[in-house]
Amino acid sequence: xxxxxxxxxxxxxxxxxxxxxxxxxxxxxxxxxxxxxxxxLPFGGALGYALDLKNVxxxxxxxxxxxxxxxxVPIMLPPTPAAVDLSGMKVxxxxxxxxxxxxxxxxxxxxxxHVAESKIACIYEKSRTIVNCDYxxxxxxxxxxxxxxxxxxxxxxxxxxxxx
Length: 164
Prior knowledge:
Blueprint: E1 4-6, H1 9-26, E2 32-37, H2 40-50, E3 56-66, E4 69-77, H3 83-86, E5 90-98, H4 102-111, E6 117-125, E7 135-139, E8 143-145, H5 156-159
Parallel strand pairs: 1-8, 2-3, 2-5, 5-6, 6-7
Antiparallel strand pairs: 3-4
Helix pairs in contact: 1-2
């Protein structure tokens, strides 16, 4: 098995604080944190707390179907945020990783004509991404094991002693 980047919950806590500090140091004052679900949800919520920003929202984008397997293009799933609700806002777009960058590009294009300004924060950025983040904790080209997605999902069959 190829070597992997492993993010622990302790590392996650450090990443949140360090990225929040980068946002503050840059002078960017977002009106809203827009997390890309699902991977960006833990990071977006934690950044909301670290930046003392209660306006946190989510956009659902499907791209990955399994480990290193993805759709041809990312697709936004309903419900999508209403562009009028974001009109004129400064938006901090948050995801766990800028891998290919296609998901981030889709969200950037969705926001482009509606928001005053948008910046991107990710825990990780890979060299092949087509969208470079404004705020990054760490750069890697390895597959990343996140603490919230490295174990298989819990199913009813597993909890009742049956094999899923």
